[in-house]
Amino acid sequence: MEQLLDRILEDALNNARKMIELGKTATYIPELGRVNKEYLGVCICTGDGRYHVSGDSDVRFTIQSISKVIALAAALERCGFEKTFDRVGMEPSGDSFDSLVRLDLSSDYPSNPMINSGAIAIASHLSCEVSFERMLAFTKKLCMDDEITLNEKVYHSEMGHISRNKAIAYLLESKGILESSVEDSLDLYVRMCSLNVTARSLSGFGLVLASDGINPLTGERLLHSKVVQTVKSIMLTCGMYDGSGRFAVEVGVPSKSGVGGGILSVVDKRMGIGIFGPALDTKGNSIAGQHVLRELSSKMRLHMFADHVPEY
Ligand code: GLU
User: Fold this and answer.
1) Most CB within 10 Å of its CB: which of 79, 140, 172, 311?
2) 189 and 74 in one domain?
């Protein structure tokens, strides 16, 4: 069974390579544009804590929007459900991740915590409560990876090209949604986006979410059940930008992508999957990474509504 899983993984990666030429790295953060777009890696962490890898699964890259899942989990743990969702919604926006149109025209608060406006609102709550160092320590635990650090180059590169997120933050401030200053909210938000992870770290985090918030290797509970349930629901409906609906139909696994090329996927009660593929489609999702996940989902029957689930 182990060997079969490794072979499925290898094939999925090789079949997805052809997609790379159709994608582009994100260039609006100049440092991300310098990443080699040919990278492609996948890692599966199964319930017994074993890692199965293929390709560039140990190359470090910045977590970007996947940190929105960690920030949401931290906010729910610290501030509770009511307070967290007091100022950010739980509905898919259908707009691009950095849009401010809906926020300005038709809503008093951001649609959900997985788009920039929602995540900046969450970061503003968190920056009153917790330091970046505490958030880094929390991220290391969730990912079961002590080597995670801040990528200073990417952090400074994003801070130097922050106009759009600054516009979003000022709009949030004008609506009375920010709890700390625009500067403090953005600083925590960008630091969290600039953490260096690997496909392996994301698969470890995926396994913790698949295991109801418990690190299956140590038995330690890291997140409450209700927090995990909430986070996975929002990943399913809003995690893949404005491609979330199609992805849910085709792959059927709660996931979150980032413009650094990462995808975090949670196969409930079975495994966590981490992907790194920095060539992105027009919506900002790893183009080859999605191909890998479509193939894994179909061959391993990972879709949450699959009728028959084999044992791996
Ligand atoms: N730091 C990025 C930004 O705010 C994250 C975007 C993403 O990964 O979707 O633009």
Assistant:
1) 172
2) yes
Task: Mark the ranges of the chain whose per-residue pLDDT is less than 50.
Answer: none
Single pTM value for the model: 0.96
CATH number at residue 109: 3.40.710.10
Residue 104 is predicted with a pLDDT of 72
Domain that holds residue 77: 67-193
Give the SS3 label for residue 264: strand
Compute the distance from residue 260 Cα to the ligand 1 centre, in Å: 8
pLDDT score at 114: 95
- Residue among 42, 241, 266, 297 flagged as catalytic: 241
pLDDT of residue 103: 73
Closest approach atom of ligand 1 to CA 97: 9
